[in-house]
Amino acid sequence: MERDGDERVRPEEELAALDRRFADELRAEQAAYEELAATDRLRRRDLGDVALELVHRGDKVAVTIGAATYAGVLVHAAGDLACLRTAVADVDLNLSAGPLLRVVETVRSGGSPSRRGARSFKARLREHEALSSSVELGGAALPDGLRARVAAVATDHVLALDPAGATWIVPLVGLAYVAASRG
To answer: Which of 103, 95, 183 is nearest to 139 (CA)?
Structure first.
């Protein structure tokens, strides 16, 4: 092979150029496969997986449920349960109720490993029942929230008693969060 004029390309140079071109093509192909694999991993996750990842990363998140928004750090996630620590309350989220999660600040370090805790939203409700303390219940059935004590957790509803002594029967499908004040 000849170049301009009398310059000749040595076979070693030609092979080296081909080798570089093939290596570049191989790197580009590998990057495309890695991107496809990453997308596939994202597609297989459910909301519980996302919440657990946010626990491990320690990112600050905002959670919107209807008109209510809570901001803080997720500290526990299991099954359909995610626990958010805010400046003033611990908020237990029913992931099956479809809360909107938004990462508001990505942190470089922090997060926490998986810890022991309730394995579901219903199990966490039973812990509130055992504590017999006043909490705020909220969700589609309770858009303004209800300050009450969890008296019993049944198969498909919660029996709650408000400070005036009224009994509330709240369907689990309409219950998106339970917030317990800290302090």
So the answer is: 95
pLDDT tens digits, one per residue of 80-131: 999 999 999 999 999 999 899 999 999 887 777 767 889 999 999 999 999 9
How far from 49 is each of 14, 64, 72, 95, 104, CA to CA, in Å?
A: 51, 18, 18, 11, 18
- Alpha-carbon distance of 131 to 115, in angstroms, equals 20
Residue among 131, 118, 121, 124 at smallest CA distance from 174? 121
Q: What is the rounded CA–CA span in Å between residue 56 and residue 43?
A: 19
Helices (H), 69-175: 121-131
* CB within 8 Å of 133: residues ≥ 6 apart: 149, 180
Per-residue pLDDT of 46-56, as tens digits, reads 899 999 999 99
Q: How far, in Å, are 17, 50, 60 from residue 101 at the CA level?
A: 50, 9, 10
SS3 state at 147: strand
Say how far apart CA 51 and CA 102 lie, in whole Å.
11
CA 24/CA 20 separation, integer angstroms = 6
Amino acid, single-letter form, for residue 37:
A
